[in-house]
Design brief:
single chain; two-stranded antiparallel sheet; 13 helices; flat
Length: 355
Amino acid sequence: MVSPSEVTTSQAESVLADKDTAAKDTAAKDVAAEDLPTVGSGRDDVPRIVPRRRVGRWLAAAGALLVFAMVLNSVVRNPAFQWGVVGRYFTTSAVLDGLLLTLWLTGAVMVLGFLLGTPLAVMRLSGNPVLRTLSWGYVWIFRSTPLLVQLLFWFNIGALYPTLGLGIPFGPEFVTVKTVNLFGPTLTAVIGLTLHEAAYAAEVVRGGVLSVESGQTEAAQALGLSRTRTLRRIVIPQAMRSIVPTAGNMLIGTLKGTSIVSVLAVHDLLYSVQLVYNQTYQVIPLLMVATLWYIAVTTVLSAGQFYVERYYARGNARELPPTPLQRLRGQFAAVRTRLRAATAADARPATGGDR
């Protein structure tokens, strides 16, 4: 038998041991709490994630900027460019008239080229072997011949055909006209450029049509749609996603390619500049005038191409690419967020310390 006094003593020793253990646990928690960051102590509440330092990328960027600065300095400070002369002739009436003719040629050639190239693409995709062969032959001939050769050929068409007539084959002609009076320099340029661009436009449209899944056409046929309506309402709208980027490159290429009509004495931008520097002998600054105008127009066309591509990407992309204005706003928002975070970190009261 255990006496009541012994039970009381053992209980007392157990209580004292529990108190001692609790005191040690409390002391250990206090020591650990001193090592942890506390709110308002000037330390971050969460551990910071430090991004990886890409030294090679920064060195490459610095080298690229250095090369760009050297090239820009050589262009701006080179007296041979004669920037004062460039500014004086940049908006003269002769240069602006040439620019307007260049823009008109570009627009007319692109519209006529795709109006002719689209039927050629349809013929190329046709099941009729005659139409398919004729379309292939047209594309083969005009893509195989240099553009300058084609323009010179059409400019001298009068040597092959002094007159052109309309009538019955191998029979009488009802209307005849002399080619010398019909084909002037500007019309020759439009015809030559249009026939050349139509061959490339046909391939662009054909590639866009072939990019559409065959299931779309099969579904349209199952619904009873005609082949023409299927092509016009289903295939072409989806093919525009593939057509627009290449067509935009063709447009820019046509804008620059119109400079070749200067060999026909067409008063485009380059020919107008040539007329000026043939009188003033200021070749370099006048060529810079033409170059700057080509760069300006190409920049505008590139921006328009971006928005057209973005429009036709609505049904394909889950999220449309941000516009330059949206991207700029996002960058400004990120900078403001970083500034606010830095300001809040500096404004925290440093109340922590040794305990």
